[in-house]
Write a structure and sequence with these properties.
alpha/beta; Rossmann fold; 2 domains; ten-stranded mixed sheet; 14 helices; about 15% strand; 5-nucleotidase
Amino acid sequence: SIKMSEIKLSEAASTDDSAEETDWAAAKAFFDNLKTNKPRPVSLPKPRYAVTIAVSSRTLFNMVAERKIYEDEGLEKYVAYQQEHESEPLKPGAAFPFVKALMTVNARLRELYPDSEELFDIVLMTNNHAQVGVRLINSINHYDLTIERFCMTGGKSPIGYLKAYMTNLYLSKDAEKVTEAIEEGIAAATMFMPETEAETKLSDTQLRVAFDGDAVLFSDESEIIVKKHGLDSFFEHEKEFENKPLAQGPLKCFLEALGKLQRKFYEKNERMNCPIRTFLVTARSAASSGARVLKTLRSWGLEIDEALFLAGAPKGPLLQKIKPHIFFDDQMFHIEGAKELGTISAHVPYGIGQKYHKGKLIEQPEKKK
């Protein structure tokens, strides 16, 4: 049987080598003790080499019904319910297809580089009570998910742990935690399930990731000009500064990490058969403001596989064709449009766009003291 104490990693979320080694040893011991008939990878990648993806339990699994019990009836009833149902696997959540796609990439990397630790390392970050861990473990084993690390924070903020793991991307349902992560320089987004029940067949051989540009890959400097001075000023500004790279946005480092793994396939002459594909889906128009975006990516030494300039057209219909496992955007207007047409979307709460909805300034609630 698994001791839940083995799940809880070192409290001191420190990035020094000794703490990292201790955390890694604890995670590996826990992982090796998992009771499963499924074959497991021989070794765990250490965070310093891996592309670390942290997902919350509510993004990985659909826990809406369980969450309702927690909110309506309190923690004790919630824990009791989870224990009573721990042999029933949880249903897949918004991040589930994305995690499966990460595992597909890892399998291909293992074929080409059997000894490399440059892989996706998936961490389950949850503030759940330890007793709920059994149901989570059972669900992970049921779906044959290779999730090597658990971090059960017991209600504490995960930010210290995210930093200790050198997290490249954090996905949660909790917008406040996501905002906190972004403020600490960690790429993060709030995940949403598609609204349509229509089965969108996502690729099971290729990870497909779509990014908005401004306030996602890039800073919101250009968006500020649109909001404050209008489109004409924006076009003039972008023309004038075409050769000045934009500052980086909150998701730039994640695109960089994807690029690092893509290059491992290119080095083995697998460019045409690469299991990672990236898309830029921006409301900018190519002719008037597209060059600066492409030159910025070039200046960073980053490639994007497909760049789609929509000149203000809705993103939803195009995303239906792309079928990404995840689409990142800073504006809820675009997230809602994507969700309605069946795209798994992730909101990046960053930049001036948070103060607007459909182009109109919205009242800002006062920040909690």
